[in-house]
Amino acid sequence: MKVKYLISLLAVLFVGTQLLLAGTITGKVSGAGAGTVIWVDDPAAKAEPPAKPFVMDQKGMLFVPHVLVVPVGSTVDFLNSDSVQHNVFWKGKTGHNLGTWPKGEKRSFKFDSPGVVSLFCNVHPEMSAYIIVASTSHYATTDANGEYTIQNVADGAHTVSVWHEGMKQQSKQVTVAGAIKADFTLGK
Amino acid sequence: MRTKAGIFCIFFLVLLFCPVASHAIPAFSRQYQTSCTTCHSDFPKLNDFGKAFKDAGFKFPTDNDSFLKIPAIMLGAPAQKELFPHSVWPGTIPGNLPVGLRMNTFFQKTSGNRGNFNALVPPGTVPPFIPKTDFSTGLFSIFTAGNFGGDIAFWVDDDISVGGQNANGGLGDGYLRFVNLGRVFRLPQNSLHLRVGHFELDLPFSQARSINISPYDIYTQANIGAVTPGFTQQNVNNLFSFAGGASGVEFSGGRSYGGYHYSIAIVNQNTSGASPGTNPFVPSPTGGANGGLGFSSDSNFKDLYGRVSYRFNLERDAASRNAVQAAGASGPRDHTYLNVGAFSFYGRSVQRFSGQDLTGMPVVLTAQEPFYRMGGDFSFNYRTFNIYGLFMYGHDTNQLPVDITGTPVPLPITGVIPPVGFIHGTPATFTGGFVQTDYLVLPWVMAIMRWDVVNSGEDRINGLSQNTSTPFNLPFRSTRNRFTPGVQFLIHANIKASFEYQFRPQQSVTVITNPITGLPVAIQPFRTNTAVTGLEWVF
To answer: Does the predicted interface ipTM exceed a cut of 0.85?
Structure first.
């Protein structure tokens, strides 16, 4: 019994220490509208993908959502909610073509490599979406004012990357020690 | 006569370069906010989804409302149906003005021997000048199409200007289509549709919505009997061709993306090319005693056109085989299919002459010459490769005018020897068709190879007299072959650059008399080939 209490106490102390050493990154992204994605790149960090898959739907001849951010290692279910046939494919090093599936069915894919994945449907060229596969679980999207907050980032040096559709992706080195501020200005 | 031949040369070349109508529908892109390529592989060529969209009455085959980004405007609440017949049945109109515009422009280069036709011009006359290269303005067209809710579709397209000339165009198609009319009679789904108005016949391969710059030769083939003296003459002057539109009604059924399809059309008869008739004492339905549009038929008879086809989708998976598109391993695609069909057109070509009865009293003699066109067609598609073709046989009954002694009156009738009746002569016939391959090399690159062939002994004989009614001047032989390779590039989904090289049939401007038969023959054949490049855009 005492051992259990001791383990619990140590665990609380460990988490508390981590939280005390974790910082917060806030800032503003200019030059782009809401929905800009900001994430902390840290190859050494281990992402914590949720057990429940993310969902990228195809509905009304649109990908929904248009931008999906997932930590590396996550599984995304690609659902077809339309009564017309769709397809999902993407190019690049991790390029895949998931084929065709009817309404109500889905195909799943696990994203093991960080990066920006541009999704397409090969019969409806107006359809596109993005999956941002972040190397950590620390990411956020900007609000209507272009502001964001990423919490629980471990203290230390990190790379913060910013992406918005149609804009040049940017990265910046920051050193987190408590709360810091990192602003960006995106351009085409 | 020689001057006429020279004028004909110009007319022929203009026709040669005249672009054919073709349409993609930007209005649908706006309504559904989808790309042209959703329905077209290389506009205006429809892919399987486009065919299903058209079959359904210009709407998505299922769940149409969920795809409309611009909701339709209701003309009466749907609940009004409960009040019928004490209310107007509710319908809709498109939420946006479903108008599309189209423009094209061309550049053409004609081979160096184009001046050979100058030999047809009489001495002392300045021959027509045909430039080696030329920029040519094509069509500026407006078109609109959509759905009025329920199952009523509409289509109107009109060429506002042709060749840069104002109002030099005309109506293409203009019709209402009542889709699934068969449900009124509790017939199976898609078994009966009704189309009313002016439309291109349900040809195996559309001419009005062809991807080619030049029309299919067999579709423009009229049947003009041989009139050259010295040869057996024929009294056939049938200007009917499949390239023209028809006014009437059409019953159809089936699907064009799999399974059976049929159509039966009853359309106006006018094979003489006569302008709309008017009579100050007989009001037309569209105007007063001396106004309105008059009448466009030149006969009481209505022509009949029928087509039946069956498309075998060849996917192994039954579910995929019956779907609008095949479920490929890398996404939806057009089916692998074999489509076979047959078609037939029956009409009665009318010619009226001033003649006499047996008592010598002047009368109007009417020659009603039954004619038919019939043939078969096929289309095989594998992925992005499509080969298709058509064969057609044309047959016109030949009623030769005879004088009071029963002797055939020499043609053309001049009135010197008045005819009193007709006897049956050798029918005027022709055969022909085409085979074309389309290969979509990339989603934006279409390679085309086409072979056109028309065999008409009458055209050859008429050409020997430099008859301007033949589509080819002084053809060297009865069979005219044309090879037309081409390539097309989609700069965007709505902008297309096309190139076509027309390797023309052999022609000749030199005629000699055969010393053995005493009949004229053409010698020294040559080809006047043409390269045409065009830009077309719709918006």
So the answer is: no
